[in-house]
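hi! just following up on the protien thing from before. the input was this:
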Amino acid sequence: MNCKLLMKKIVFVLGLLIMFNCAGLNVSAEPWIQTDDLFKVKIGMSSKEVITELGEPLFYENVMDEDDEITTSRYIYNFRTKNYPEGSDKPNEAPKASMGGRTTNIQFTFINDSLIGWEEDKLTLSMATNNKPKSRGGTLQLIGLLLNLIIIIKVF
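and the predicted 3d structure came back as:
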């Protein structure tokens, strides 16, 4: 009798662990850069130096001119700004953890492997948003939660 009660408790705890694991946070697999990272980049840097400072780009393209003398390269990075507390003029204050800033893409332009400038990608600039809508959870998370509850109910 005691063994059966212990087994039910173990199954209950494992069920809770599975349930909370399935209802976890969404983590982005894509690399992101922030405003602080842009201060590390200087005009005239090579593409390898920029990659060393910022990490691998989301994607890039190389375009050669007709004479194959000038190579124009564009490296695209995901970019996210930070939100600071209202009334804060201090950039050293901790940003708000709960609210993400504006997200867009930054395009770094190189000519013959020398950085000539960067700007927000014009297409994504027109679609940039200031605030992320609050996530209400995905359908798969809801289905996972319901399946876990059904399993727990069936066991008990």
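The helical segments are 2-22, 35-38, 47-54, 122-127, 139-155.
The mean pLDDT is 76.
cheers
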